Amino acid sequence: MTPELYPLQFTPILKERIWGGTKLKTEFGKPITSENTGESWEISTVPGDISVVAAGSFVGQTLEDIIEKYPDEILGAKVHERFGKQFPLLFKFLDAREDLSIQVHPNDELAKKRHNSFGKTEMWYIMHAEPAARLIVGFKEDSSPADFMKNLDQKTLPAILNQIPVRKGDVFMLETGTIHAIGAGIVVAEIQQTSDITYRVYDWDRVDAQGKSRELHLDLAIDAINYHRTASQKTYGKTPNASNNVVDCPYFTTNFLPLDGVAEINKPGDAFTVYMCVDGGFDLRTDTGHFSYGTGDTVLIPAGLKQYALQGRASILEIYIS
Length: 322
What we know:
It is a single chain. With 322 residues, this protein is mainly beta. The chain has 2 domains: 13-234, Jelly Rolls (Sandwich), CATH 2.60.120.10; 244-320, Jelly Rolls (Sandwich), CATH 2.60.120.10. It is 13% helix and 39% strand. The strands form 5 sheets. The chain has a 7-stranded antiparallel sheet, with no helix packed on it. Strands 15, 16, 17, 18, 19 and 20 form a 6-stranded antiparallel sheet that branches. It has a 3-stranded antiparallel sheet with strand order 9-8-11, with no helix packed on it.
């Protein structure tokens, strides 16, 4: 017998990073204890980092546990058929007090061959950006492995990369193979395939407290990189109380939902939905419950929960698998 379904939140999985800060606590109220917390993994089934339900009748159970018991009710029949009992996406908030390393992620084929993993297609929604903040996304002009290695050896790699000033609300879709880095002074909501495969190619020559530099992965990265220019920034509509499409790719669909009042939601029930509140706050009402969320909250709506209402004033990312 399936228990009563309800919106699921999970205990954040917090990650210390050399580039991290404290905004996940000061802005979102995450329970960080470090001055260098870079990531809050909101929903994850990456091995070793499995999300645990924070409240309700499933409290204390892992996301893997409840999918194992109720795959169609949680994932939806369409997702279950495609991915089995594997949750296919990973949701994070990142606080970059300093520049992240310049890196690249492999595609599905390479990741499967080398790591028995999904590739790592991802998107970023900029939640906060300091006045001079910028991202690195792709090359300024078409490049090549030889040109890339020459600039890396001469410590001029950033000069051939596309550095883009950003502000709150900007969205970037990063196909696998796109060389990239989040710059200092940026907080992002990140949606990606379930994968933790990153090839680091340059880390600004910095060292940790023990004087050690972080590992680079040039031998793996060189044939994973797309050396052509890319157009990664996305534009999107902002019609109130409606789902405005931002990204539609084989791995996920993301809509921007600017809530100003009430939005009645009716789902077919064949796929789960995730909401990331990137500004403001909202209530979610079902036939049997009332739930409240604020900036920095992430909630998984089981596929079997088909009808509910959102009420409030908030900017929300709505994510599902088409």
